[in-house]
Specification:
Number of helices: 4
Structural class: alpha+beta
Distance between the termini: 38 Å
CATH architecture: 2-Layer Sandwich
Strand content: 25-35%
C-alpha cells in the first residue's frame, strides 16, 4: 500500500469508525492522465461504517469527500467510492 493510501485509510477509519475499509491505489492505471501528471492519485475506497446507516449513496459519498477535503486538493485526483452500512443481522 502506498503512503497516500495509508493516510486515506487512517483518516477514514478514524473519522467514520469504519468496521471494514479497503483503499486501493490505482494510480498506475492512469499514468499520463492530467491529474496523474500533476501528482494526484487515483484511488478506490470500499468502506463499511454504521455512519452510513440511513444515508443514501450520494450523502455517504459527500461525507467521505468532506473528510478528505484537504487531500482532494492535491493528493487525490480521482476517488471511486463504495460505501455501505453493515448488513443487519437477520438471525435475531
Amino acid at each position: 500500500m502506498s503512503e497516500r493510501s495509508d493516510k486515506i485509510e487512517t483518516k477514514l477509519k478514524e473519522e467514520l469508525d469504519a468496521i471494514e475499509i479497503e483503499v486501493i491505489d490505482e494510480s498506475h492505471l492512469h499514468a499520463g492522465h492530467v491529474g496523474a501528471r500533476e501528482g494526484g492519485g487515483h484511488f478506490r475506497v470500499n468502506i463499511v461504517s454504521n455512519r452510513f446507516a440511513g444515508l443514501g449513496r450520494v450523502a455517504a459519498q459527500r461525507l467521505i469527500y468532506e473528510i478528505l477535503e484537504a487531500e482532494m486538493k492535491h493528493e487525490i485526483h480521482a476517488l471511486s467510492i463504495t460505501a455501505r452500512a453493515p448488513a443487519a443481522d437477520s438471525s435475531q
